[in-house]
From TrEMBL:
This is Large ribosomal subunit protein bL28m. The keyword Nucleotide-binding does not apply. Keywords: Ribonucleoprotein, Ribosomal protein. It comes from the Eukaryota. GO terms for molecular function: structural constituent of ribosome. The keyword ATP-binding does not apply. GO terms for cellular component: mitochondrial large ribosomal subunit. The lineage of its organism: Eukaryota, Metazoa, Ecdysozoa, Arthropoda, Hexapoda. Residues 254-275 are annotated as: Disordered. The gene is LOC117139020. Belongs to the bacterial ribosomal protein bL28 family.
Length: 302
């Protein structure tokens, strides 16, 4: 049957819809970012809005029938405001509420209680005012510090883009030796001894791509591609060829081909400046009237 289908064995298990990492620039993203994406979006977070049952079976209270336990997480809504704060894994819950016995149920949104508080990072050596929840403050106290809270929890438990961005900055600061504490060597070494163990699960490339949203990762990839493949304007290429031909023809105004003009020595910027000076001499010299006639951008004699 597989040989009779146009796509072979792939159609036997159904057609798979291409995802964001299967086409376009998403397919060119490195494995380091895909690992972070799986940790952030595809990993089951810790239970926050419900209490999971540990047993595998339970007895129904009405029918006394034995049925398997299903710990189904509640669907959460991550609002734009949640990514501008640190909510400790909480989010908005959408559901229905029956407010009167004789009335129909109505839609209802459960929003966590928010407050603005100040947190301190020892690695970054800075105080930050952020919007948090009571659960966030409790977890920070349980982890004995804001840096420990960011580094101990996974991306799926942090949830917010702000928390992931701060975690990336903390990891980069630890990787670079905590430059914020360069003026205090003793405190710098103390912070490195306390937090260095969090660098073991990550490689430098994974730290560089950690905490970016999908759009930010695409923009970063585009910038890297532009830097790797810089486009040289045709006018610079044609100008260099013209100067080279004039030098080979022996025109004195074009200058002599010296060793310093070779591509292997000297910078490209100095070589371009010398080409511009040579063209300026050619246009200003009286023997270059034939060149000024064919140059559409040169000054015409009146």
């Amino acid at each position: 049957m597989a040989h009779a289908t146009p796509q072979g064995v792939k159609l036997l298990n159904g057609w798979k819809r291409p995802g964001r990492f299967d086409k376009g620039l998403g397919a060119q993203l490195p494995e380091a970012y895909r690992k972070f994406w799986r940790e952030w979006k595809l990993t089951t977070p810790a239970a926050v809005h419900y209490i999971p049952k540990e047993q595998q079976w339970e007895r129904d209270e009405v029918t006394h029938a034995i049925k398997p336990v299903q710990n189904i997480p509640l669907p959460l809504i991550d609002t734009p405001e949640s990514h501008r704060g640190i909510w400790g894994g909480e989010a908005v819950i959408k559901g229905f509420q029956k407010r009167q016995q004789t009335k129909r149920r109505v839609p209802h949104f459960w929003v966590p209680n928010l407050r603005r508080s100040v947190v301190h990072s020892h690695v970054l050596d800075s105080y930050m005012s952020v919007v948090v929840t009571e659960r966030t403050l409790e977890q920070i106290h349980e982890c004995h510090g804001f840096d420990h809270y960011l580094l101990k929890n996974r991306a799926c438990d942090l949830r917010s883009a702000l928390a992931l961005k701060l975690k990336r900055e903390v990891l980069q600061a630890l990787q670079n030796g905590v430059p914020a504490l360069a003026d205090e060597p003793e405190r710098q070494q103390e912070v490195l001894r306390e937090y260095r163990r969090y660098l073991e699960p990550y490689t430098p490339e994974e730290i560089d791509w950690y905490g970016h949203t999908y759009l930010e990762a695409i923009r970063k990839l585009q910038n890297q591609l532009r830097e790797a493949e810089k486009v040289v304007p045709h006018k610079l290429e044609f100008r260099g060829k013209l100067i080279e031909q004039l030098r080979q023809a022996g025109i004195s105004e074009a200058g002599k081909l010296e060793k310093s003009d070779a591509p292997a020595a000297g910078s490209s910027a100095e070589h371009k400046d010398s080409d511009i000076e040579a063209l300026t001499k050619l246009e200003s010299s009286p023997s270059s009237s034939w060149l000024s006639k064919i140059n559409p951008f040169g000054k015409k004699e009146t």
